[in-house]
Amino acid sequence: MIRRIDTLLKLWAEDLHSSVGAQGTTSANMIAMLMATKGELIRGTRGSRVLLDESADIELIVNKHLPAQLSQVVREHYCNQDSLLSQKITHCGCCRKTYYERLHEAHEYVAHLLLGKQAA
Known about the structure:
By secondary structure, this protein is mainly alpha-helical. It has helices at about 5-15, 30-35, 50-65, 70-80, 85-90, 95-120. Helix 1 packs across helix 3 (about 50-65), helix 4 runs antiparallel to helix 5 and helix 4 crosses helix 6.
């Protein structure tokens, strides 16, 4: 794994896919978040160290650019905090070695796309 990408993906998952939002509501329910904040929705209120642009870039990479198997491993590994590692591996339909190979490949893919965007 690439340490910097691992950190960015952890913060991305916390920032955009955490089960508890800034006001204690689930982030999956946008209407509840808007009601709790009286219509004022501000991303990154949990003191995230990931820049909002970078978080949005990672979201786009994971959703649109990663191959399906890699995206699935990234989502399971970083966004699914309620499951055990063995459950995550089973959900991805592979063995432990393949799971970590895919995770590493996803790290390389994300690093390449982020570096390409920064160079442009």
